[in-house]
Amino acid sequence: MKLVVLTAAVSVVAAGCGSANQAGNAKDTNTGAATAVPAEAVTISLGLLPSIDAIPFIIAHEQGFDQKHHVNLDIQTFKSAKDRDVAFQAGKVDGLSADLVAISIYNEAGLDVKITSTTTGEFDLLTGNDEVKEVKDLKGKTVILSKNTSTQYTVAMMLKQAGLTEADITVTEVPQIPTRLELLKNHKADSAVLPEPFVTMGRTAGLRVLSSTHSAGINPFVLAFPQSAIDAKGQGIRDMYAAYDEAVDYMKTHDQSEYIDLIIKEVGYPDTLKNEIKVPEYLPANQVDVKEVEAAFAWAREKGLLTKTLSAEDVISDVQFKK
Q: In this predicted model, what pLDDT tens digit does every residue of 248-281 receive, in sequence order?
C-alpha cells in the first residue's frame, strides 16, 4: 500500500523536474575509468536525472576519482523523475537526486529517506512579455508550472520576495517542460519555470530571465538516501563525497572545453548551443540548510502534501556532515 501511495505521489513530483523526455529507460554511464575497481571498493548506485546537478558525479566517475577513493559509482540516469522513483522503490539504486518537496512526499508515504547533502541544480523564471520587467510585474499575469511540485514551490518563494502571493498570479499547469518553452515562445503565457538546458534554449530565442533559484537564494535540490542504505554503506557514501569534491576541484582547474562535450551529452544541450553554455560554479558538497527544509515543509503542509509531524532534523543525515 505504501508503494501505491508513493507511486501516486511521485507522479506529481515527476512533472516538476526531469519530464523533458517522457520515455525513460535507465542508461548506464559507467564508461569512463579504465582501471579495475579495487576488490574492497563499495558500489554506490545513484539514480540521477540528466541535469546540471549530476555533472560532478559523472565527472567523478569518468575521471576515476571514485576508484581513487575506493568507491565505485554506479550512475544510472533516467529520462524522467517517475522512472527514477520506480527504480528507487524497487531498490535498484541506493540514492537519488531529489528536491525538498519530494523529500516531504517520500516521508509522508512512509519511506525513511534522509538528505545527505545539497546539490547544484537550478530553476529559472523566464518571460517573453516586454511589459514584465521584474517578478513583481507578474501580478495578474499567467505563469506556467507544474502544481504541487518544487517548481511551484520555487515560484511561491520568488513571489514572496517580490511582495506577492500565489493568489496574485494565474497558474497554467503544464507538466511537460518542452511544451512550457514552446508556449512561452509563442506568447501563450507571460512566464514559465524552466530548468537547463531549456533556460539556455529560451534565452537564445529571445526570452529573458526574471529570477532563478540561484539569484533568489533558494536551493531545494538535494541528494538523498534511505536510512537503510546509510546504515549499510556509510563509509561508501563518505568516499563518494570525497570523489565528488575532487571532481569539483577538477572543473575549477581545467578549461570548460575539456569536459563540455560530456555536459552536452548528459544534460541534453543541443550541439548548436555549445558556445552558449555556462557551467555553474560548483561548490564542494555541503549539507542542506535547516531553514531551507523548514520553508519547503511549511509550504508542503499548506498544500496538503505533508500531514505528518516531520521536522528538518528528522530528514537530515549526519553520515557526512553534522546537522
A: 999 999 999 999 998 888 888 888 888 888 888 8
| 177 within 8 A of 204, measured Cβ to Cβ | no
Sorted by where each starts, the structural domains of the chain and their CATH numbers stand as: 2-121+220-315 (3.40.190.10), 123-212 (3.40.190.10)
Decide: 189 and 181 in contact? Cβ < 8 Å.
Answer: no
Claim: this prediction has a pTM higher than 0.90: no
Q: How many angstroms separate the CA atoms of 37 and 16, rounded?
A: 36
CB-based contacts of 262, cutoff 8 Å, min separation 6:
55, 58, 59, 62
Residue 133 burial class via C-beta count within 10 angstroms: exposed 0-12, middle 13-18, buried 19 and up: exposed
Strand runs (DSSP E) across 128-268, as ranges? 142-145, 170-173, 191-195, 208-212, 221-226
pLDDT tens-digit map of 48-77: 988 889 999 999 999 999 999 999 999 998
CA distance 152 to 13: 10
| Strand order from edge to edge, sheet including 170-173 | 170-173, 142-145, 191-195, 123-127, 208-212
How many alpha carbons lie under 13 Å from residue 54 in its C-beta half-sphere? Answer: 30
Residue 38 is classified by DSSP as P
Q: Classify the C-alpha dihedral 162-290-312-280 as positive or negative.
A: positive
Q: Which residues of 93-130 are buried (b: 16+ CB within 10 A; e: fewer)?
A: bbbbbbbbbbbbbbbbbebebbbbbbbbbbbbbbbbbe
In angstroms, how far is CA 149 from the centroid of its own chain? 12
